Amino acid sequence: HIKENGRDGVGIYAPYMTEKTLDYIQMSSQLRYGIHNEEFTVYYQPQIDLKTNEVIGTEALIRWLHPKKGFIPPNDFIPFAETTGYITEIEKWVFKTVVEQKVKWQKEGYDNFKVSVNLSSKMLTHPQLLAYIKKILDEYNISGDYIEMEVTETAIIDNLEKATDVLKQLKELNITIALDDFGTGYSSLTYLQKLPIDILKIDRDFIKNIQDINDEAHILKLVIDLAHSLGLKVVAEGVETEAQLDYLRKNHCDIVQGYYFSKPLPEADIKTFLENRKTCL
Ligand code: C2E
Ligand code: MG
Ligand code: MG
Ligand code: MG
């Protein structure tokens, strides 16, 4: 009998096992090993404030350096980690790593930007989340002012009451809350007003197709204006071209993030990026 749970399933092999089950088991044991073996690393993508032209934040994005398969992007293992429960360990590690990095940057004089961390739906409603976050902030003696957390609409709406409560408590720690991937999920405008969020991150899918006067551009402009009227700041994700940047600037988007400025970078390259921007401003 094959158990559904990958953890218990490791090592069990039966001839009627489908390739998918086998994948699941392999992935599960490799992920567990990877966590144990610290095969993960965090890249950071700069976020630029369009008013000041300065780096106002960096988004922390996890990468898995698999010993055999090489670089595995998050979309290939995060959803799996979410269904198996490994996500909790992974995200605890990410948060601690990011806080540690933030403290290091501050000591080196790079102190005026936030670090933004993605939170899965599972982690958002995890009973120990707040205690863990408080513990780490305490341990590193850092204020929540420097931390931002990104959650998707789906993650919130799946568990509206609990999630809203957790977000409120995170905000009490001065942590900034961003709604990630806006425009891909329900994108219900009525929720926007009710959720305890500070920032709206418009998904790359939305930014990709803007041409000066098409429908997408009109909707984008409306979303930016609406967000502002609700007191939210707007981040545009996945900005790749000058035309997109111009449009966003013209329509008062606050912050941009994308390959046009920089891909996500390992910590060492972030410093170079910051130094280079200083000299070219
Ligand atoms: P996301 O949070 O929406 O992150 C933005 C993704 O868009 C990143 O992909 C980033 O590399 C990519 N991106 C940024 N600018 C551009 C651009 O100009 N062009 C293109 N083509 N792509 C751009 P990445 O790093 O592969 O991450 C994918 C997703 O994985 C993230 O989407 C996030 O949902 C998830 N993820 C990453 N790290 C973590 C983590 O630590 N915890 C959790 N729960 N999820 C994570
Ligand atoms: Mg994100
Ligand atoms: Mg996003
Ligand atoms: Mg996205």
UniProtKB/TrEMBL annotation:
Its name, as the record gives it, is: Diguanylate cyclase/phosphodiesterase with PAS/PAC sensor(S)
> Signal sequence span per UniProt?
none
User: Any idea where the EAL domain is?
Assistant: 24-278
Superkingdom of this protein's organism: Bacteria
